[in-house]
Design a protein that fits this description.
It contains 6 helices and 5 strands; from the N terminus they run βαβαβαβαβαα. By secondary structure, it is α/β, with parallel strands linked by helices. It has one domain: Rossmann fold (3-Layer(aba) Sandwich). α3 links the parallel β3 and β4. It starts with a strand and ends with a helix.
Length: about 160
């Protein structure tokens, strides 16, 4: 199940994205109009994908990216923005591989980016599960040497 948060101050965009994402079986969706409410959601819930198109106001795209980088940098973030990505925003999103879409952008391009983010989030989740199941040698607890000595003694006696 993918947990998705849509943050957009444009009602029509929110509704179109909500309609598209409700067609997917494995999506749990939260939609927020204001960045301040979305920030509270980010603090209290883990999202796999966040799509935001906040431009100005008390909480902007840059604020959402900063909060997400601090709270849960594994979340896939798609930002739809006016003009070029500002230097401060690029500095935040760059290391995470998050995506910035410059307006005007078609709905098809946003849907394509959301599907890309889903694939990326699934791969990250699969890698985490695999790492939990088969930890690397560096993550495995050290073997107790007395256990090895006990096993060797049993083999020599048998």
């Amino acid at each position: 199940m993918m947990n998705v948060l849509i943050i957009d101050d444009d009602r029509e965009t929110r509704e179109v994205l909500r309609t598209y994402l409700h067609l997917k079986d494995d999506v749990r969706l939260r939609v927020e109009k204001r960045g301040s409410r979305a920030a509270k959601c980010i603090l209290h819930h883990k999202f796999d994908v966040i799509v935001t198109a906040l431009h100005q106001g008390p909480v902007s795209n840059c604020d959402v990216a900063r909060l997400l980088a601090a709270q849960n940098p594994d979340t896939q973030l798609l930002i739809v923005g006016k003009g070029s990505c500002s230097q401060s925003l690029c500095t935040i999103i760059g290391p995470h591989g998050w995506l910035y879409l410059k307006e005007p952008v078609s709905l098809d391009r946003i849907v394509e980016a959301i599907n890309w983010a889903f694939d990326r989030a699934r791969r990250a989740s699969d890698e985490t599960k695999r790492a939990d199941k088969y930890p690397s040698p560096m993550q495995r607890p050290a073997l107790d040497p007395s256990l090895l000595a006990h096993t060797a003694q049993q083999e020599s006696e048998g």
